[in-house]
Each structure stands twice: as structure tokens, then as C-alpha cells.
Design goal:
Number of strands of chain B: 3
CATH class of chain A: Mainly Alpha
Shape of chain A: globular
CATH class of one domain in chain B: Alpha Beta
CATH superfamily of one domain in chain B: Phenylacetic acid degradation B
Helix content of chain B: 10-25%
Number of helices of chain B: 2
Number of domains of chain A: 1
Structural class of chain B: alpha+beta
Radius of gyration of chain A: 18 Å
Order of helices and strands of chain A: HHHHHHHHHH
CATH superfamily of chain A: Ferritin, core subunit, four-helix bundle
Order of helices and strands of chain B: EEHEH
Largest sheet of chain B: 3 strands, antiparallel
Distance between the termini of chain B: 60 Å
Oligomer: heterodimer
């Protein structure tokens, strides 16, 4: 039986991954390789930020039910410490070069689309509604990142080498997307969330097909990093949060 | 190493209530597919349109401004070419 605490935890995972990835993409603004990419990735980041807001808004309502006073979206995003963040480790990895960013984006988008497709049929009406809306944006995101994997992989020797390196380095962060823990299982039983493990096969198939078309090799390493969903993060999250949160923490309540 | 630029593409967007694609600007892209996606990101952020055409700028042949007179002047004074002399019955007034 799903408690509000389970639901709150689950929603924060979705919100935090979107938020941190949006923050990472924001770092590219003004630094993109070409103007069109600068705008495109900014758009993707804004889409993800919008989705994060929807998940945070729902989480806030659930927290109000639980404790009588739910934190606002801003408080949840800007005043929690690293140990309370539930994003995937994948999204906090640094931007690196464009191949690194594209690899991270593609791994995430392919999973995100599969997840949202299932969540759009959630027994929880609000989750289904948010997922359906987000799915339209994410369908475009995954097309875009797929295009880039193919163009960079099946590109010049330099681009292929960098793309392959990026694919390999980020591979150990992909396992986390498909591991179920207690929270996942509780929500699964009630039909509110899907089994993360059920997404693995279609994801592997999709990623394998795209990498193959990009003349890249699918990594085969078995060992996977974990911990993001439980609040155990890499050092990178600290830097991301410092940049994202310092202003609200230094000037509490500051507004535009 | 010489820095090369992606080819330039001209972008045409048709809005939801429009009948024709309008030229909205240009952008760089490596190929036609990316040009459409880039146009979607650069030129349809504010719900400007529902259809995108892209064409390489190099494929456009344009009339030369220096030839404006011989190309367009003669049409100015040929009033018989305009369909304004037919009396329109009421039923088809709004064609």
C-alpha cells in the first residue's frame, strides 16, 4: 500500500533528475559549438525544468497531506542539501565535451521516453497527466540526441573516437535507471509506477540499434554505479548545487 | 586546420492559420534533417507554425535587383490584366 512518503520519494526522484540535468544543460548556454545547438540544448533544458516543476508541484501537495505544510517548488529545488537529492547519478556527471554531453543525454532520453510512456498509464491520475504532457517533449529530445549520436559516431575519426569514449565512460551510470528498490516496488504493486527492470530490454535494444548505426560499439561492462536514488551522490552534485543554490541561500527570499 | 562552416539553409514556416509558408530566416545545419530540427528549435519557440520547409540557400536562384525594370515595370501599366471588369453576382461576392 503506497504511503504518501513513498509517493513523495518517488516524485522527488523524477523531479530531481529533470532539475539537475536542466541545470547541466544550462551550463552550455553561450558556450555551444554553434548557435543553433546553443538554442536547441537550452530548449531541451527548459523542457526538463518545466517537467521538474510539475513533479515538484505534485510532491509539494503530497508533502502538505503528510505534514500539514508542504515545501514550495523553490524550497524543494533550492534549499535541500545534496544528501536529500534523489536524481540519477548519470545526470550529475559533468558536461565534458559535446560527445560526453550527447552520450549522457541519449542514455537519459531513451530511458525517459520508455518510462514516461508507461507512467502515462499510471493508476495515479496526476502522474499519468504529467507523464503524458512530458512525453511529447521527450519524444523530440530522444530524436535529437539519437541524431547526434549517429552524426558524431559515423562522422570523422576524431568525432567517432570521442563519441566512443563518452559512451564507454558513462555506461556504468546507466544501470541505476533499471534497478528497482523498495519505493519502486511499493508503487509498482499499486500500479502507480512501472517496474524499472521492465525498461531494460527495450532500452538496450534501442541503444544497441542506434550505436550500431553510428558505427559505435555497445559497451559490455557489467558493473554499475548506484546510489543516486537513495541520496548517495558523486562529488559532482556538490558543485552543481553550489552554483544552483548559492543565491537563494545567500539572499533568502530574493525575488526578481 | 581550416574552419569550415555548415551550409546555410533558408527556413519557411506555415502558421496554423496560414495557407503559405513564409520566409522567417536562415540557419546553419549539417544536413536537411538537422535543418528541420534546428528550425523547429530556433523559429517555432512561440508557436509560430505547424509546418517547416528548409532549402539550402545555395539552391535558391533569385532575380537580380539590377533587372527590376525590364522584369517588373511593364506589368505596372497593363490594367486589362486585372480581373476587375466582371460584374460579380451577389452569391459569389466573397471569392
Amino acid at each position: 500500500m503506497t504511503t504518501d512518503r513513498d509517493l513523495f520519494d518517488y516524485l522527488l526522484r523524477l523531479a530531481d533528475s529533470d532539475l539537475i540535468l536542466a541545470q547541466r544543460l544550462g551550463e552550455w548556454i553561450g558556450h555551444g559549438p554553434v548557435l543553433e545547438e546553443d538554442i536547441a540544448f537550452a530548449n531541451v533544458g527548459l523542457d526538463l525544468l518545466g517537467q521538474a516543476r510539475m513533479w515538484f508541484a505534485y510532491a509539494s501537495e503530497v508533502e502538505t497531506r503528510m505534514t500539514g505544510r508542504g515545501r514550495t517548488e523553490d524550497e524543494l529545488a533550492l534549499l535541500r542539501d545534496g544528501g536529500d537529492f534523489r536524481n540519477l547519478l548519470l545526470v550529475e556527471q559533468p558536461n565534458g565535451n559535446y560527445a560526453d554531453t550527447i552520450a549522457r543525454q541519449f542514455y537519459f532520453d531513451a530511458w525517459h521516453q520508455l518510462l514516461l510512456t508507461k507512467l502515462a498509464r499510471s493508476a495515479d491520475a496526476r502522474i499519468a497527466e504529467i507523464a503524458a504532457k512530458a512525453l511529447k517533449e521527450v519524444t523530440y529530445h530522444v530524436e535529437r540526441s539519437t541524431d547526434w549520436i549517429i552524426r558524431l559516431g559515423d562522422g570523422t575519426d576524431v568525432s567517432r573516437a570521442r563519441m566512443q569514449a563518452a559512451i564507454d565512460v558513462l555506461w556504468p551510470y546507466t544501470g541505476e535507471m533499471f534497478t528497482a528498490d523498495t519505493t519502486d516496488r511499493v508503487l509498482m504493486v499499486d500500479g502507480m509506477a512501472c517496474d524499472p527492470e521492465s525498461l531494460l530490454a527495450p532500452w538496450r535494444e534501442r541503444v544497441g540499434a542506434v550505436l550500431s548505426e553510428a558505427t559505435l560499439t555497445l559497451p559490455s561492462a557489467e558493473w554499475m554505479q548506484r546510489g543516486g536514488k537513495q541520496g548517495v551522490h558523486t562529488e559532482h552534485l556538490g558543485h552543481v548545487l553550489a552554483e544552483m543554490q548559492w543565491l537563494q541561500r545567500a539572499y533568502p527570499g530574493a525575488q526578481w | 586546420m581550416e574552419r569550415t562552416e555548415w551550409p546555410l539553409w533558408e527556413i519557411f514556416i506555415r502558421s496554423q492559420h496560414g495557407l503559405a509558408h513564409k520566409h522567417v530566416g536562415s540557419l546553419h545545419a549539417p544536413d536537411a534533417e538537422m535543418a528541420v530540427k534546428n528550425a523547429r528549435d530556433v523559429y517555432t519557440r512561440r508557436n509560430e507554425g505547424v509546418s517547416i520547409w528548409v532549402i539550402r540557400s545555395a539552391d535558391i536562384t533569385a532575380s537580380s535587383p539590377g533587372e527590376k525594370e525590364p522584369l517588373f515595370e511593364p506589368a505596372n501599366s497593363k490594367v486589362y490584366r486585372h480581373p476587375t471588369f466582371f460584374p460579380m453576382p451577389d452569391e459569389v461576392k466573397h471569392i
